[in-house]
Each structure stands twice: as structure tokens, then as C-alpha cells.
């Protein structure tokens, strides 16, 4: 099998990050609130002003959890990351 | 600055793949049809049955081009990759 391309590698990384944190407790294919908190703390340090602030994590969960099951599934996670990546991409590039 | 995390790296890779192909002709922040074809051929080999088949590329462009400007911008690209990644993630894992 040929080496994965850059795009395939990025897609695989998104899947493996989600799986790594979703596996730690409860349903293996869902992020609970505490799994979401630890993913954000470790993978997107700085995104949450204060990851220990329950209200901030509650709000993020509410924003991501489109089907209201109090968990984040992979498609909800990818929609969030896609939006975040678009925001980063549209930022003016440093000269 | 701390090393980028796995998630930050994946997001940066999505941006750099898009930019690499979008820069080659026309508007620097858009994929023309021929740029989309070459991105697909090189970055997702096998996705298009026949990348030389104009009709297949036309159909893909139509599916991705939500605002009908005959080009693919970064958000249209990321929505496509997010959907593709979800499809890959939900495939039954090989035992």
C-alpha cells in the first residue's frame, strides 16, 4: 500500500485524536463532558480560557451537542473542528 | 512556543493541502476545477474512479460548490473533508 498522502494523514489524525479521548470512559464512540474537557485542555490548549471553569465547558458542550444527548459524537466533533479550521484559515496571514 | 498538538497538526495540514493546490492558478484562495482535479488525483487517489473523466470531476465540483461560483473555497473544501472523514470513521473497523 502506498504511503498515505498529507490529506489522508490529516484525516486519520482527526479520527485518532477523537478515538483516543472517547475511549477513556462511558461509550467508546462518544465524548462525555469530562472527555471533551481533557481533549480541549491537551489538544487545543488556549481555546478554553479556563478549562477548570465548569460553565465554560458546559457552554462548549451545548454548542457542539447538536442532537442534545449530552455527548459529542464524531460528526459533531468534526463539524466543530472544520469551523475552527475555517476560522484559523481566514485569519490574515502574518507578513 | 510549545510543539503543536496532534489536533493542531491535523488542522494545519488541511490548510496547507488546500493552499498548495489553490495557489497554482487563478485566485489564490480558491480551487478551480483543474486544481480540484489535481488535488483529488494526488491527495485522495482512488476517490475518483477516473480523474481524467471530465463528467466525474464536473459532478464533484457541483457537489462541493455550494455557492455556485464554479470554484471551491476553503469552507466548501473542509465541509467535504469533514463528511468524508465521518464516512471513514463510521466504517466497521477491520478485526
Explain this structure to me?
Chains A, B: One of its GO terms (cellular component) is extracellular exosome. Chains A, B: This is S100 calcium binding protein P. Chains A, B: InterPro entries: EF-hand-dom_pair, EF_hand_dom, S-100_dom, S100/CaBP7/8-like_CS, S100_Ca-bd_sub. Chains A, B: Keywords: Calcium, Metal-binding, Repeat. 2 copies of one chain form a homodimer. By secondary structure, chain A is mainly alpha-helical. Chain A has a single domain, classed as Recoverin, domain 1 (Orthogonal Bundle). Chain A has helices at residues 6-22, 33-43, 54-64, 74-90; strands at residues 30-31, 72-73. Chain A has a two-stranded antiparallel sheet with strand order 1-2. Chain A is globular and about 45 Å long. Chain A starts with 5 loop residues before the first helix and ends in a 5-residue tail after the last helix. The interface between A and B is medium-sized, with 31 and 31 residues.
